[in-house]
Hints:
α1 (16-30) packs across α11 (237-244) and α5 crosses α7. It is built from eleven helices and eight strands. It has helices at residues 16-30, 46-53, 79-83, 95-100, 105-118, 130-134, 138-149, 177-194, 197-202, 216-220, 237-244; strands spanning 5-9, 36-40, 58-62, 89-92, 121-126, 160-163, 204-208, 227-230. By secondary structure, it is α/β, with parallel strands linked by helices. The two termini are 18 Å apart. The mean pLDDT is 97. The longest helix has 18 residues, at 177-194. The protein has a single domain (5-236), classed as TIM Barrel. 1,3-dihydroxyacetonephosphate is lined by residues 9, 94, 164, 169-170, 208-211, 229-233. 1,3-dihydroxyacetonephosphate binds at residues 9, 94, 164, 169-170, 208-211, 229-233.
Amino acid sequence: MRRPIIAGNWKMNNTASEGVALIEALKPLVQDANCDVAVCVPAIDIPAAAEALKGSNIALGAQNVHFAKKGAYTGEISADMLKEYGVTYVIIGHSERRQYFGETDETVNKRTLAAIEAGLTPIVCIGETLEERETGKTEAVLARQIENGLKDIEDLTKIVIAYEPVWAIGTGRTATAEQANETIGYIRKQLAEKFCPKCAEKVRIQYGGSMNAGNCKELMAMPEIDGGLIGGASLKPNDFAAIVNFDK
Ligand code: 13P
């Protein structure tokens, strides 16, 4: 049985004090969760968020990490810097980073390997654009992202994968539960072929893209879907809590 994981991706929202207020509102609402819960916050919010999350069942995540241990990389943040504040998860290769900040499968791979090496759990994002889906390229794109982005990972169970169809992110247009389930099933099949069937069975694969309080139950009922990476709805304590408590 794979334990579900619901993670919030705040993206570039919430100052540190706004983030603390959100966390304080959230804590009592999710304290009886039957799944892993995390919030992935802007880097500068991490110290305050770490303090606010102490003693709670909510883990702390970051939204990116550099692949070098340290050095002349102005503006970047290393895995050790995140670890010192108790960060456990880090989102890698989000489509917004691929689209706006030049992230490629190769840099995703370097970041992922560096995060694992440092003992962080990467949440590696993959997914096709609308044009790719409409021209029948979804499987080829995912296969390429898996092949190149996850190269040389020795233990696949050390990562979480987030399947986020780009056309469903922030658009209110969710993949249907069947669509998401089928595509995540394809991802798992690829992992079985490229890594090993046993680890493919164990690795947790989230769905992300306009997941909300209204559609989470249907999505989470699907056998291949092991959780959610939540954008907009993670900014509202009640909405995020409703997703975390999808089984209640
Ligand atoms: P939305 O939930 O706002 O569509 O964002 C999804 C996402 O990109 C999570 O990483």
